[in-house]
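pinning this so it doesn't scroll away 📌
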Amino acid sequence: MTSPKSKYIKISSPAPHVLLLELNRQPVNAFSTEFWKEYGYTFDALSKHPDDIRAVVLSSALPKVFTAGIDFQGLMKLGSGDAMDPARRAFLIRDDVLDIQHAVAAPERCPIPIIAAVHGIVIGLGMDIISACDVRYAASDAKFSIKALDMGLAADAGTLAYLLKITGNHSLAHELAYTARTFSSDEAEKLGLVSRVVQGGRDAVVAAALQLAKDIASKSPVAVTGTKRLLLHARDHSVAENLQYTATWNSVALQATDLQQSVKAGMAKSKEPLKFLSLRPKL
């Protein structure tokens, strides 16, 4: 399987139809402008990649840190300026913030399920990044913080937009957002931010996430992609609107050969793994 080229992200394929993306900017995966642009581009490229990629694990190549967040030098530049008046400077700053938001949201735009496997430090932009992923696993050594508040700013790259939609403990979510305090992987699970805490560090959580990715990759890509789109639509729309959308989506998906294969295998009680066509078969 070929992979998109990347400077700060190690990309490998440890299993059929599965990619492992590892953040890799020494020493702490601080996101410079070049880094977050590359991050967004990488996920957008996966959306139309010619290879049959069906699940992606996002982690860090660094043994003790997922990411320390935004690069401080880049952060200071957003609020700086010369004699430009505040209104015009605000337009430029807003464009920069929107660009960062667009990059961070790339995993959500990607039709492939994205599993974040985090360990060590997960602060600031790290919270924004994992909030836009589909599934979040945490190593027991992970430490989280919505750090922007301590920098004199409300988090603006995704955390606050996602937090109450992806977690179930709203009181705790508000507490963590208002205090920027560090919280553990166990508290992240209590919040509902992560679905599983894996005992150990980087290697343990990546192994668990890859096992999940392999399971997802064994399913019909038509069904998995449809499920991701319908879940995202349901999050932001009413039940009635989502049912209408689902009916339209599945009017096409029901015609896929995947359904016939799955039904026949189920009726025959076959235990053999099914082999599904790529979503983008080569002509």
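📌 and the second one:
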Amino acid sequence: MQSAVVGVVRSASRFRWTVCALLFFATVINYMDRQILGLLAPVLQHEIGWTQVQYGRIVIAFSAFYAIGLLGFGRVVDWLGTRISYAAAMLVWSIAAMLHAAVGSVMGFAMVRALLGIGEGGNFPSAIKTTAEWFPRRERALATGIFNSGANIGAVFAPAIIPPLAVLYGWRAAFIIIGAIGIVWLAVWLVVYRPADRSDQEEAFDDTRDDADALDARNVNAPAPGWGQLIRKRETWAFLIGKFLTDPVWWFYLFWLPKWLNESRGMDMQHIGLPLVVIYAITTVGSIGGGWISSTLLRKGWSVNAARKTAMLICACCVLPIAFVSQVDNLWVAVGIVGLAAAAHQGWSANLFTTASDLFPRRALGAVVGIGGMAGSIGGVLFSEVIGQVLQRTGHYWVLFAIGALAYLVALVVMHLLTPRMTPAKLDA
């Protein structure tokens, strides 16, 4: 009997890392589909003739509907489970990505970016809930860091693959090819993935001797709380404000770095790829490293509160040098500074996402991540309009980099004031 239990534990342990790999590749695809517009922006701007403000509003269309997708899929994931919800999200955003090839106007791009935003809104609520179902608390930040590093790998692959595709076959073919990759992942997900059941969770979590995890696993069938109950919690506001203040900075890196390199550094489509590859390669280290820091501190006996916030403070301090990147003349020094800031963001993000599972039970997790993601998207909408207006009027990026440098420290202070001890939220049964 004992050997059978050990076998179940080992089986659950092995499969949860397979699950992590599936989440990683989904996030790679998510960010390749998201970033392709920024990479092709110089070509599309010349062909379609949009202004800085119009490009900013195309970004806003994605951001606004991404917020809707996050909020909606957050509830859908809690209702329908991760397998069906993730499949639906991937199908919607892959079709939307391919539809970019069929449009040729500012309005057309705004419409397909809106559809892309709705579909991509399902990625992180599904992935965070899946991680909470399969991973114990002590491994959660590391697992989140690993799958979240897919954003960086996607950002590395995108500039390495997309510009050559556009040069060889045209920008429309590039959208179709990159979008079709998601359909391949969808088939693998439906064949391979199975949701974690109660025995998987109890065996895996009991193996780490985490009583809180084991209790959460036993209460997995309790009803999901409504938005009204969640929005009244200080813990929800801590996560929400953390996302609202820092997500727009990452979107700025994704959508505007290619234009910054083109306009401020004079780099054309054939030469813009290598600096972006270097930036996002550095970022991969930050995503996994940020999760590793807090997971390591937890294994050493630190409290969840101290471990998460220490890791986030380290990341927030690593962002600060980007305030001065516009004054740097050497291209590769500037690339290193931006890479450090982007890596710190991803380390921050891995821990921020994990705080949601620290503060809330799994039955509420999809909705909480959706609410926080919506707040981050609203911040992205507002910041995108600011970016477009600043660049249209001044042509200078230094103010935008300075805002990004300070956002993380401000967010951490607010989060600490709202959740000084990071005790779990008390929800109605």
